[in-house]
Amino acid sequence: MSNGFTLWFTGLSGAGKSTLAQAAAEELRSRGHRVEVLDGDEVRTNLSKGLGFSKEDRDTNIRRIGYVCRLLSRNGVIAISAAISPYREVRDEVRREHERFVEVFVKCPLEKLVERDVKGLYKKALAGEIAHFTGVSDPYEEPLKPEVVVESHIETVDESLGRLLARLEALGYICPNGVRR
Predict the structure, then answer these.
(1) Is 44 helix (H, G, I), strand (E, B) or coil?
(2) Mean pLDDT of the chain
(3) Number of helices and strands (H, E) in the chain?
(4) pLDDT in tens, 54-86
(5) Is 138 in contact with 57 (CB distance < 8 Å)?
(6) Containing H/E element for 101?
(7) What are the residue numbers of the active site?
(8) How many Å apart are CA 91 and CA 109, to the nearest integer?
(9) Is residue 179 predicted with pLDDT exceeding 70?
(10) pLDDT confidence of residue 178
(11) CB atoms < 10 A from the CB of 12, how many?
(12) Does the model's pTM come out above 0.90?
């Protein structure tokens, strides 16, 4: 029996998914777990090259990430996905295909995302210069029952990470720090 699982970070661009995913990966590795991170931008470059941003292409991208996460997790790896994954239906489909799945909603209001937008993407999207931009001209459907909600505009990365790890411990997916199986 493997003890892998999928940790699925979802939220708008710039909310802090990748930052928290990397922090979680580092902590879980330090506790002796095998971990792989599938970051949305990297996946689009390597696994989903050629896909656009239509709903169908976004769903295909998320299904591909879900498939790789499932393969990793069933082989004892903690698979971490950090991708916007804007549509609830396909996120729920991916969840159903996993034995152990933890959805983490990285929540941040649009106003804060615009403030912290280092790439200027929100400004361009709000000006109509970028089509199909999630949260502006394309929908983002918040999860209805995520296992963890972090609010990156009011929590530090360490606070969010602490709550996430506590939830993983409560689910029995990881042992408390310092405890070995």
Answers:
(1) helix
(2) 90
(3) 7, 5
(4) 788 888 889 999 999 999 999 999 999 999 999
(5) no
(6) strand 101-107
(7) 85
(8) 21
(9) no
(10) 55
(11) 24
(12) yes
Q: Which helix (H) or strand (E) holds 165?
A: helix 157-170
Q: Count CB neighbours of 131 within 10 A.
A: 10
Using an 8 Å Cβ cutoff, are 25 and 103 in contact? no
DSSP 80: E
CA distance 80 to 4: 10
Residue type, position 158, single letter: D
Strand-pairing partners, residue 103, are: 8
Residue type at position 24: A
Q: Quick check: 170 pLDDT over 60?
A: yes
d(CA 69, CA 102) in angstroms, rounded, equals: 12
C-alpha–C-alpha distance, residues 105 and 9, integer Å: 6
Token pair recorded at residue 61: 């991208």
What would the pLDDT profile of 44-60 be if each residue is shown by its tens digit?
A: 777 767 787 778 888 88
